[in-house]
Amino acid sequence: MPPSLALWLTLAIIAGLFIRDFRGKPNVTSALWLPFLWVVVGPGSRFLSQWLDILGFHVGGVTVEDGSPIDAAFYFALIAAGLLVLRKRRVVLAQFVRHNRWLAIYLLFCLIAISWSDFPYVSFKRWIKLLGDPVMALIVLTEANPTESLAVLGKRCAYFMLPVSILFIKYFPDLGRYFDPWSGAPMNTGISTNKNELGFDCWILGMILFWHLLHVLKWERSKAKWNELGLGAGLLAMDVWLLKMAQSMSSLVAFALGSAIILFFGFRWVQARRAGAYIVAGIAICALAGTIGFMGDFIHFLGRNETLTGRTDIWRMLWNWDINPIIGTGYESFWLGERREEIQSVQPALNEAHNGYLETYLNLGFIGVGITVAMLFAAYAKSRRELFHNFEFGRFRLAYLISFILYNWTEAAFRLNGFPFFIFFLIAMDYRVAADHVPERVPEAAFKRPTLGFIPADN
Fold it and tell me: Model pTM?
C-alpha cells in the first residue's frame, strides 16, 4: 500500500473512532480533552515542537536545558486551563493536601530542592510542568464517574496513538523507527521517539483496555455490548502487536503483571481484605524463584542477560557518582550541564538511570527516596480501600501501582514528561467533589454498573 493511501486510511479510521465516541455520549465533560491533549502531545508521544517539525514547521531553539518555548507555552496553557476547570469545580487545595499528604510533601520537597540545584531556573520550569500531572489527574477524578472517565480517556488516547504508531512503523520508517546508538540495531518507536516510550504507551493503554473489556463483559446482553467488546478487542490486539514491536521487556512484564492482577481480583474466591497477604505471597514466591535460579532463566527467556542490557553497569557507575547523598543534586538537575556531558562521554546518549529509585536518589537524595517510598505505601492503602467502595477502579489502581513499582526497577518513571507518572498521580490521589460541582453531565453512561465514588483518605 502506498504511504499516502495508508495515511488517509489511518486518518479515516481515527475519525470514525472519534465519531463513534461522540455518538456514544459517554458520561464525561468536555474538560476531559485537556488530559487527552496532555498525553498525546507530550508524555505519550511527541512534543508539540516535534509534531510541528513533522508537518514542516521547523521551530528550532530546542536545548536540553531550555527546552522549546513553543512546548513551554503549550503546556502552560494546558495547566492554566486545567486550573480554571478545577476552580469551577471548587477544588480546594487544603482538601487536596489533607487527603493526599505524601503526594503534597513530595511536590513540596521537589520545590524546595530547586534551591540547591546548579540550574535553578531550569529546575523551576520543570517543577511547574510537573504540576500538570496532578492537575490533569484531578480533572479525571472530579468527573461525575471517575471510573468511566479513566476508560474514556484511555480509549480516546488509543484511538489516536495506536493507529498512528502502526502507520509510522509500517509506512513512514523515518518517523517510526531508529537505530540504537549503543548497538546499532533497528528499533521501532511508533508515535513516540524511542522504543521504551512506545513500550510504556502500550503497557498503560493495554492495561486500561483489558480492564475495560473485563467490565464490559458484565454488561447486559445487547448490541452495544458486543460492539464495545469488538472495538476493545481490536484496539487491544493493536496494542499487543505494538508492544511486541517495541521490544521493551520492562513494559511487557509490567503489562503482563498488571493485567494478571486485574484478572486475579476479578475471581469470586479472591477476597479484597486479603490483598496485602496476596502481595506478600507474590513477593515470597519471586524471592524463592530467585534463590533457585528461576529468575535468571526468566531473564534469558525474555532475551536479556544478567546485566539487564547493561543496566547493572550503569547503576554501579551512577551509584558511585560524587553527589550529596542526603539531598541529591536538586530537582531534575542531575542530567544537566557538564555532568551530563561527562557521563555521555562514557555512555553515549545516556540520559536516565534506568531505575526510578536510583534516579530519585540522584536528584533528591535519600530524603527524596524516603518520601517516594512513603508515597507508594500511601497509594497502596488508598487502592486497597477503594476495593471496598468502587471495586472496578480499585482493582485497576492496585494493579497499576504494583506494575509501576516493578517497572521502576529497570526504567526511571518518577519523572516529568512521562505517561507512567501521570497515571501514577491518577491512581495515587483521592479527591471527592460534590456532584453539583461537575458541569455538563449527561444521562447515558458507558458503564452500566453504578459506582460509589471516592472515599477520602488520610494518607
Answer: 0.89
Distance from C-alpha of 34 to C-alpha of 36, rounded to nearest angstrom: 5
Model confidence at 236: pLDDT above 90: yes
Residue 336 has pLDDT above 80, yes or no: yes
> Closest Cα partner for 119 from 324, 337, 309, 323?
337
Q: E strands, 362-458, where? A: none
Residues 372 and 366: their CA atoms lie apart, in Å, by 10
Domain that holds residue 255: 3-437
Give the number of domains in the chain.
1
Burial of 454 (0-12, 13-18, 19+ CB in 10 A): buried
In a domain, 452, yes or no: no
Question: Is position 334 within any domain?
Answer: yes
Q: What is the pLDDT of residues 181-233, one digit of tens each?
A: 666 678 899 999 888 899 999 999 999 999 999 999 988 888 888 999 999 99
In a domain, 451, yes or no: no
Torsion of CA 450, 263, 222, 388, to 10 degrees: -10
How far from chain centre, in Å, is Cα 399?
13
